[in-house]
Amino acid sequence: MNQERVFKVLLGPHISEKATVLAESKKQFVFKVATDATKLEIKKAVEALFEVKVARVTTLNVQGKTKRTARGLGKRNDWKKAYVALQAGQDLDFASSAE
Q: Where are the membrane-spanning stretches (predicted)?
């Protein structure tokens, strides 16, 4: 996988209360990913970008909410998130990998 695709697959970390609990207890991290990304692409992108070993990847398609606007009903975009579990002894540090 080329370097350009790595940055297109991973859009950023998904920060929530559930994601924080998973990161602390089970070493699972949650990412917003491209809607066309496969589990293998996500695994390779995380391993290349953060230099860790990934045990498994679980993906989830999130449906966009319907919202009321001044012009009637609107819909937020659908997006995809990935739960990335690391192998034993591995840890992910967002601060040091941004350099």
A: none
For residue 11, what are the β-bridge partners? Answer: none
Nearest to 54 by CA among 90, 86, 18: 86
DSSP string, 14-72: ---HHHHHHHHHH-EEEEEE-TT--HHHHHHHHHHHH---EEEEEEEEEPPPEEEETTE
**What is the helix (H) or strand (E) element at residue 80, kind and residue range?**
strand 79-86
- Listed residue (87, 91, 65) closest to 78, CA to CA: 65
Cβ(67)–Cβ(50) below 8 Å: no
CATH class held by domain 3-86: alpha beta
> What is the pTM (predicted TM-score) of this model?
0.86
Tens of pLDDT, residue by residue over 49-67, are 999 999 999 999 999 999 9
Distance CA(81)–CA(87), nearest Å, equals: 20
